[in-house]
């Protein structure tokens, strides 16, 4: 039996609850929420499963050593004393990244360099050879985290950030991050039981993530590589078994997922990405200006979108644009739950509708709000009288 060990899943601010729920549903043990991270326990198979199956994780780290640091020498000495030869051949390659919250170590790159020196010096002392540094495709990716006087050394099991799902070859200006898109959809409470729409779909990220959520398709099946595939203990049979067990849990989807964009190039890119993700049977994309559309049918519609802002809004009147969002929803989209994310908090006032929910999130480094507008079939008053 493989033994369980502690791991740490990193995420975006505000997604800790969703990630903890995802981990619990996947079968993680001892799930504990932190800030922008969730710790948990599992075995090697679960580490593979977490990387393949988590929608809101950016990275999965496996801590292997922790110690106290009060001065520079403490870092070098402790790292050099670790048995790196069990993780890496002397002919292999490594990369180190660091995050620091400490008065002695104030520079993350310097911390990473010191760690790398200690590892390389250990190998040199053992047999005179040393591993190379390869920042792009290392055999071993190491994470150093120093918080006050505690240093934790972890192996990065994921490699490239998990938002790089592998289906996106075409992007527009400021495309939404896949982890952010998945988290917003999950936060909005969509469960695949109604039609879904992104009326300003850009390169189709929201649509792809919605389709994978609806069908319970693991989000990272299309990735070219995870960091653990270069490890000494890489178990391809176990990985394939985990992959197979996740694929058995996919489910049928009996509704529609629709995307509009008024830019023909965006529509072409979105279609290409959806095709790459093998999701074209679930997702329908049309060249439409949302402000000239209205909802067809009476069924409930769930909408999540990321209106353009900043560089994508250069030639637009922001107040008018957000005002048009409000009037299109009000007059054209009854029986719709519409969620949008924006970092332009002032512009929200121009929508002219009262949001029923506002959630603080971050889009990259920009503080943003995910807001919900409930469009009723008739008036709100009539709705209450019917109940």
UniProtKB/TrEMBL annotation:
Superkingdom of origin organism: Bacteria
Coiled coil residues, start to end: none
Database matches in Gene3D superfamilies: 3.30.2130.30, Vaccinia Virus protein VP39
Key word Ribonucleoprotein present: no
UniProtKB keywords: Methyltransferase, RNA-binding, Transferase
Keyword presence, Lyase: no
Protein name according to UniProt: THUMP domain-containing protein
Classification via PROSITE patterns: THUMP
Residue ranges occupied by any THUMP domain in the UniProt entry: 46-157
């Amino acid at each position: 039996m493989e033994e369980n060990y502690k791991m740490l899943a990193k995420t975006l601010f505000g997604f800790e609850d969703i990630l903890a729920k995802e981990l619990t549903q996947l079968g993680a043990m001892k799930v504990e929420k932190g800030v922008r991270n969730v710790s948990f326990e599992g075995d090697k198979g679960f580490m593979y499963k977490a990387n393949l199956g988590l929608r809101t994780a950016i990275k999965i780290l496996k801590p292997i050593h922790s110690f106290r640091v009060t001065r520079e020498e403490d870092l070098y000495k402790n790292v050099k004393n670790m048995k790196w030869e069990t993780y890496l051949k002397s002919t292999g390659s490594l990369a180190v990244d660091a995050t620091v919250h400490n008065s002695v170590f104030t520079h993350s790159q310097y911390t990473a360099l010191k760690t790398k020196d200690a590892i390389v010096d250990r190998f040199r002392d053992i047999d005179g050879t040393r591993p190379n540094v390869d920042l792009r495709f290392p055999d071993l990716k190491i994470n150093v985290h120093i918080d006050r006087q505690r240093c934790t050394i972890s192996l990065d099991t994921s490699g490239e950030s998990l938002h790089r799902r592998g289906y996106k070859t075409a992007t527009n200006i400021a495309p939404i991050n896949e982890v952010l898109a998945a988290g917003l959809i999950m936060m909005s409470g969509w469960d695949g039981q109604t039609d879904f729409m992104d009326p300003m779909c850009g390169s189709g990220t929201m649509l792809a993530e919605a389709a994978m959520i609806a069908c319970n398709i693991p989000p990272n099946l299309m990735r070219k590589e995870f960091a653990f595939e270069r490890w000494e203990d890489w178990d391809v049979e176990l990985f394939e078994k985990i992959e197979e067990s996740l694929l058995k849990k996919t489910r049928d989807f009996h509704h529609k997922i629709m995307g509009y964009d008024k830019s023909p190039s965006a529509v072409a890119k979105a279609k290409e990405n959806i095709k790459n993700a093998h999701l074209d049977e679930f997702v329908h994309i049309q060249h439409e200006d949302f402000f000239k559309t209205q909802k067809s049918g009476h069924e409930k519609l769930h909408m999540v979108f990321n209106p353009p802002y900043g560089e994508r809004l250069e030639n637009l009147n922001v107040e008018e644009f957000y005002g048009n969002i409000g009037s299109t929803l009000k007059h054209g989209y009854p029986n719709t739950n519409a969620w949008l994310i924006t970092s332009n908090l002032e512009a929200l006032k121009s929508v002219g509708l009262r949001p029923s929910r506002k959630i603080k999130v971050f889009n990259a480094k920009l503080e943003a709000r995910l807001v919900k507008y409930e469009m009723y079939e008739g008036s709100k008053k009539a709705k209450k009288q019917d109940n």
